[in-house]
Amino acid sequence: MTIKPLIILPDPLLRQVSKPFERVDDALLKLADDMLETMYDAPGIGLAGIQIGVARRILVVDVSREEDEKNPIVVINPEIIRSSDERSVYEEGCLSIPEYYAEVERPASVTVKHIGRDGKEHVIEADGLLATCLQHEIDHLDGVLFIDHISRLKREMVVKRFTKAAKAKAV
Q1: 21 and 58 in contact (C-beta within 8 Å)?
Q2: Are 7 and 14 in contact (CB under 8 A)?
Q3: Residue 136 known to bind ligand
Q4: Secondary structure class of 11 (helix, strand, coil)
Q5: ∠ CA 26-29-30, rounded to 5°
Q6: pTM here?
Q7: What is the pLDDT of residue 171?
Q8: Angle at alpha carbon of residue 9, lines to 55 and 124, rounded to 5°
Q9: How many beta carbons lie within 10 A of that of residue 147, not counting itself?
């Protein structure tokens, strides 16, 4: 397994819409393993393919607590087929927007249809942190960032800060 470099805001790649996979093969499974390794190393609880420069519809999540056994989930070609009217608010962060956190309101529960590592269709009924994490990562696959769910003023301040940092780093 290989730890991949993370794509950081303001990289325009983060706004790209990811394409679906046609089939599950060894290359895809290696990508999933690399993504899990990268996510755990960061450390984070979710990672979308686009965050390592792969514009394909894959994400990995693990919302288990540190003291618990790891519970990695590989989600290929996800589709939210149901979301609750009930809302919940979580303080979200993102590996592509390091050290910035904001409260985001999303549906409290979702049903996600996807392909698993085994190449078969699966359905995840999620609520709580898992529901939030899945929605956050699926947003990435659609070119949406969690800062798109906060006020325009706060979002512009974050983008400006990361743009300035990227320019300083490039010099």
Answers
A1: yes
A2: yes
A3: yes
A4: coil
A5: 85
A6: 0.96
A7: 77
A8: 50
A9: 22
What are the residue numbers of the active site?
A: 137
Q: Which domains does the chain have, with CATH numbers?
A: 12-170 (3.90.45.10)
Over the range 118-145, which residues count as b (16 or more CB within 10 Å of their CB) and which as e? eeeeeebebeeebbbbbbbbbbbbebbb
- 58: Cα within 13 Å, side-chain hemisphere: 24
Residue appearing with tokens 């290696």: 30
94 carries a ligand binding annotation: yes
- DSSP structure class, residue 58: E
Is there a contact between 78 and 56 (Cβ–Cβ < 8 Å)? no
> Could you report the per-residue pLDDT of 143-171, keeping only the tens digit for each?
999 999 999 999 999 999 999 999 998 87
Sheet (strand 109-115) strand order: 46-48, 58-61, 73-83, 109-115, 121-127
**At 87, which amino acid appears?**
R
- What is the DSSP annotation of 73-131? EEEEEEEEEEE-SSEEEEEEEETTEEEEEEEEEEESEEEEEEE-TTSSEEEEEEEHHHH
- To the question of whether residue 149 is assigned a binding role by annotation, the answer is no
